[in-house]
Structure formats: structure tokens, C-alpha cells
Amino acid sequence: MHYFEFGKRDATIYSGGTTASINTGFDEILEINKVVNNNGTVGNVSRVLIDFDLSYISQSIMDGKIPSTAKYYLNLFDATSEEVEASQSIHIYMVSGSWKQGTGKLDHDPVTSDGVSYQYRNHDAKTPWVTGSVLTDGGTWFTASVDANQEYNISASYDISFDRKDIRADVTDLVSNHIYSSSVYPNNGFIVKREDSGSYGNNPATSSFGFDSGQEGDSSRLGNLKYFSRETHTIYPPKLEVVWDDSSWNSGSLSALSATDLERLKIYFKNLRPEYKEKSIVKFRIVGRELYPTTSFATTPAELDVKYLPSASTEYEIRDAETEEVIVPFGSGSRVSCDTTGNFFRVQMDGLQAERNYRFCLKVVSGSGTTDEEINFYDDNYEFRVVR
């Protein structure tokens, strides 16, 4: 199963003298950038703040709907990043202080300063970023465990290169810190930035980093990483992806499709409708049968004899029908199940944007090992629309 939580608030914060108090809460673009002067010094650094509502996820874990083994991924989508040539690492931390999104944009004139900025968590209230009793700039975040029994990491990273700018970073440990220790690690979202080795503050658990060294502070020109924000009018807003294996298998008295069947296989949906409501959870039934069943004398036609697809090796994928963007990839979170009636899988439609068309693709792996393994894909216009 895949569940998506879209961003609740986000902003870019800029360190430069004239931009340190600017709010960008309504900008359509998030930037992770570093401006290097001609003399090699760093003139401006930008970092991204992004927050997701985790209340539904927390409650679903308590209710047993989402297992404790679920994985969590932060997804940010490239918005024409510039001059990204060198490989580099993006680092993600849990923000340790509250902040206000604000309504500003980078190009506002006069400047809007009603929310978060590099200098302030909330410019309206003149609330600065503080580590311990020390005023700091650029955000504060957890950099060391404050719980002796803590089993999760407090940071995550993701490698970027000129041909891989989209971010799909595993933030399972960061989310788990909040879900299982919310009193210690309140949910104030993530800060996404290039790494730096300097630190300020007298509290070992929360810090704000300077930019005097590391990829954020050295003289290397790494390009301007740009990502779509929650304010975008595209299909690429930031999202937190939750993935877990919800498949089950009980074939009852059903027979398996034979090797011969699988060589000439046709898959069809028994209940695929043109439209589904965006908040629904839908159980899709699929049937695999031989494309040209052998004629035989029987009371039941061969084409109506339901057989099950290979267990643990049949998966589905969901694509945007217009852009071909993969929304739900093949993998452990998209395995097909089986009960005594046949094969099925469930989809939570609220992870898909409304008023768009989507298409299922199916993958069937047959055989065993690597010598006789065969992988076949089925893409037969299994299309549907999500509506409000």
C-alpha cells in the first residue's frame, strides 16, 4: 500500500543581508542554493523548510491500519534546477522549533516579512531562531539524540547529481522519532539543506549550523537546486510517501496459472470503473487467463475458470495518464493479494490528485532464481479518473 500526505506548509529561507528577513511562504519554488562570490567566499545560502501533518499517520498506526514496519519517503520534484554539475548530498533534519509559513514571495516589492525567514521563526512576533540561550540564524534542528533509549537516526541524506535531481529520501527514522516519541521530538517538519560542519549553541541536541565549511560553506559551485512547493499549480507538490506491504495470500481451492498459461497471459480488471472519489479506498479485482484457452468439453467454459497469478511476484504500478509520471512504483508496497475468489489489491485514492486520469500497469514474474525467471509487463489501457 502507498499513502501520500501532501505538504502542509513550506518556505525557503535565505541568509543574505537583504534577504535574511524575507518570507517566501507563498512562493511556488523551493530553493537549495549557494551563491559564491568571485573571491571564493559564500554570499548567500538558502535552505528549505517543509512540514507535513502526521496526525492521520499516527492514528492509523495506533489503529493498526499502518504497520510499524512502514517506510517513509520525502518526495521533492525538480523545477528546472540550474547548473547542477557535481555530485552532492542533501541532508534532512527534524526542525526543533515552531515556525510560521507566512504569505511572502522572494520577488515581492515591498518585501513581505510576516512569517519565517533566516532570522526569525515568526517575523510578526519577532521570534528569533534560538539554540539554548543563544540567538542563531538559519533554523534550528535536532542533531543528536535527546533520549538515551532512542533507536532511530535523527538525520537523513540523499545523493544528487546532474541527471538525478528529484529527491525521494528515506526519512523513516525521522518520522518514527516523532510518532513514537512525540513529547521529545515534536513535529515541526524538516529542514532540507546542503551539509555543513560548523555549529552554534550550547545544547548538544539542537543546533543551527553556520556555513563556514562543508558543501554549504566551501567555494565549490554546486548549482541551484529548485523544487516545486505546495503552492505549485503543477502535479508535483511535495509529498510524504508511506509504503508498506499489505498483501495477503489465501488461494483456497483455486488453481495456479500454469507455465503454459503464463506464456500467453491476458490480465483484465473485473470491476474497473471510469471514476473514483478522491477519499475512497478501492479494492480492485484482476483476473489472469490464457489468451487463447484450449477448447474442451466441460460444464464451465475454460475462460471462466479463475486461476491465481504467481504469489508474491505480481505487482501493480500507477502512472499519470497524461505525463507518464510514476505515482506508485512497482515494489513491496504494490504487491497483489489473493483470496478464495481471486487476485486483488487496494488503493487509497486520497494519495492521487483529483480531476486527473491515471493508468494501471501490471508486472508478473514467473519462474524461480535467475536462470528461468521471466518478467512480463501488462499495460492495456487500464485507465481511471479521480474526482472530487
Main beta-sheet strand count, sense and barrel state: 6 strands, antiparallel
Q: What's the number of domains?
A: 2
How many alpha or pi helices?
4
Q: What is the straight-line distance between the termini?
A: 21 Å
Number of strands: 28
Low-confidence stretches: 198-209
Structure, described:
By secondary structure, this protein is mainly beta. The chain folds into two domains: 2-242, no CATH class; 245-387, Immunoglobulin-like (Sandwich), CATH 2.60.40. Helices cover 7% and strands 38% of the residues. It has helices at 55-62, 172-180, 214-217, 259-263; strands at 2-6, 9-14, 29-32, 34-36, 42-51, 71-76, 88-94, 120-122, 127-131, 134-136, 141-142, 155-160, 167-170, 190-194, 206-207, 225-228, 239-243, 255-256, 265-269, 275-277, 281-290, 307-308, 314-320, 326-328, 337-339, 342-348, 356-366, 374-387. The strands form eight sheets. Strands 2, 4, 5, 7, 12 and 14 form a six-stranded antiparallel beta sheet that branches. The longest helix has 9 residues, at 172-180. It is elongated and about 75 Å long. The two termini are 21 Å apart.
